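Researcher: Next entry in the queue.
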Amino acid sequence: MNRRRAVVLLSGGLDSTTTLAIAKEQCFLPFALSFRYGQRHEFELQAAAKIARAAGVERHVIVDIDLRSFGGSALTSDIDVPKGRSTDEMSNGIPITYVPARNTIFLSFALAWAEVLESNDIFIGVNALDYSGYPDCRPEFIEAFQTVANLATKVGVEGKTRVTIHAPLIHLSKAQIIKRGTKLGVDYSLTSSCYDPNGLGEACGLCDSCQLRRKGFLESGIVDPTRYRLAQVPA
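Model: Structure for this entry, 235 residues:
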């Protein structure tokens, strides 16, 4: 079968891993793209490599971008990662863990690689429900970037075909994402979501990402395989 090529943004986290499984389910030939962008939680790249191998992607590329040059985020500078925030706190405002223009940058690289691969499809694992207030995880952003992609590429200008940005998780809760991935056989023990893991890759259990992940597993009724630092995880 002649499978269409697709670039899949793969962070090593729960959402992007589920998105990769969905791309495969839809019979795309996935090319995984990850970034070493100066993030303090670089352990996620080890997870991404394991996930890419397990999924049998056609190729996995890790691109180096030093966003620490700009800072402006707890993930790319010496700002403490917020811990133990309440649901209300997480749902109000844009948190300091937001990395300025990160998804715009990542999608731009994905678009460039897609052109080289002669692919019209890019997958990204953003979701607009449990997303910690990041502005570049909203449907409006995905729609706007897709418009830009078709204005800024050779295939778009020539009108031969159109680039599609697939965001299959955009309207799903974390629990729904976990249920979907579990049905597709995703091994979530390979994934890493924590913003501040230790050297062994153990999750803190208290950052926004850990709390959303733990809440998702609890609400889904599926056992959470995450390795948490026990001393920091609430009972």
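Model: The longest strand covers residues 29-36.
Researcher: Noted, moving on.
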